[in-house]
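Example (one chain per record):
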Amino acid sequence: MSLGDSTVGWDVGGAHVKAALVERGTVRDVMQVPCTLWQGIDAIDAALACVYARWPQARAASHAVTMTGEMTDLFADREAGVIALVEHLAASFDGRARFFTEAGWLEAGEAQREWRRVASANWRASAAWVARVRDDALLIDIGSTTTDVVPIRRGTVAAIGRDDATRLETGELVYQGVVRTPLCALAQRVRFRGRDCNVMNEWFATSADVYRLTDELDPAYDQHDTADHRGKDRAATCGRLARMIGRDARDAGAADWLDLARAFRDAQVRLIEASVTQVLAASTLPVDAPVIAAGCGDFIVHEIADRLVRPSIDFDRLLDASGVAGRWGRVCAPSAAVALLLGEATAHDVGLACGS
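Predicted structure:
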């Protein structure tokens, strides 16, 4: 492959497929497509069709793949998930796919044998790109479903956890996001009209309802259906929030429901900040090391950085991407990272083969 060829980076998750188109080392475009993988592996095909419709050249590109979709309950376990996804994607990309691991790039057969290295490695791809351009930093990627907190020290990824299980222990992985997280996962009790009340442990509303009401969630990132399959207007959103505390929207005014949304917001920020504090305590990051903000919840990252009295930098600034490509590159950081990393690795291999 030459430097003039296209590379598409893919982050195949259980709820979205994220893709980045890189040409000549430049991020040209990035997109995110909803993908209900838990309903069947064919959901990936619909997502790929959307990407190909926008980028016809992607069919002939090289493909850099990372994934988290093996965690969905479509598969009996993570090994089965990785093996199935690798097989499906390798066939879809006509053998031009390479799969990301911390140790290097694998072809399909190797990726299936080394499934533990491939599973849920997308966070490491983003962190590897940050480490490529920053000596010391703290990457915080708050997405639709999860939050990654990854220290970079002296130009290397300094995470303690190696997989989801150990990262959950260390606080480097937090199952909190700004779109799909059920509100009952944010707090057991919230304050409403001056009184504390219990929260119903039901999937009546999600974090998207909170940030939709606070006007912080870009509608472009609000891609999934609501918990009750009703609308995303303010009235329907207030109704879902009200149900979380055993009420109806008509029981209070718009200001009250906004206050409730802010109470849930505060609870989620505290949960994420607690993990950030845990990670920082275990790291040796300098006090002035910047926070790198990624994900559709980047607005919370900047808020936490301010509380930590640390500078914050948007991930897209490290991509040298601007406009729509930059904005979506920040939201879909792992897909942009794997595309750039594979492009660099391939260019290096070509250079060695040519004796340069």
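Caption: The chain is about 40% helix and 20% strand.
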